[in-house]
Write a structure and sequence with these properties.
65% helix, globular, mainly alpha
């Protein structure tokens, strides 16, 4: 997790250094070159591992897109399979897979329980001291099938979009 500004800077460096960013150009660059563009060694390893899997066909990126589109029509947005497939990649956990579904694939019902800002937004809007899994699932069902819209609003609230709201979480003792 890096700031948006850092992400933009690294992306621009990648575009400048690689031209087109795809599996082939990433593999040709290698870990040291990617790391020199501003990312950590571990992230550079994850990216090259992913590029290798796409290049060899071990991970079929197109099938995720196609499968997702077909599933969305047939099964009202069953994202679990796409999250499982993405989570099998080195360096991608459930939260990252959910963010890929939300931002890259523009899926409409993504609300991440592991996102701290979403939890904070829920505490602020609904005046809870804590959001446990059961309470989170109650809100997920309430927002479905528009969890992604709820995510965007909860991030805004968490970031201070409504100054009158505050976080009800207990203060940590020092």
């Amino acid at each position: 997790q890096i700031s948006t500004k850092a992400q933009e800077t690294i992306w621009q460096r990648m575009l400048s250094a690689l031209g087109e960013v795809n599996a082939e150009t990433v593999l040709a660059a290698g870990v040291p070159k990617l790391q020199s563009l501003g990312m950590t060694f571990r992230k550079a390893e994850y990216i090259t591992d992913f590029a290798e899997k796409v290049h060899t066909g071990a991970f079929d990126l197109e099938s995720i897109w196609q499968k997702s589109a077909e599933e969305a029509i047939r099964e009202l947005m069953d994202d679990a399979g796409a999250i499982r497939a993405l989570s099998e990649l080195k360096g991608i956990g459930v939260w990252t897979a959910e963010m890929i579904l939300l931002f890259c694939m523009q899926r409409q019902d993504v609300l991440s329980c592991d996102d701290l800002a979403i939890q904070r937004g829920l505490r602020m809007v609904y005046h809870h001291r804590k959001i446990d899994r059961g309470l989170f699932e109650k809100y997920r069902r309430r927002f479905s099938p528009y969890g992604s819209v709820a995510s965007l609003y909860l991030w805004a609230v968490s970031g201070g979009a409504i100054p009158e709201l505050h976080d009800y979480a207990p203060k940590e003792k020092k």
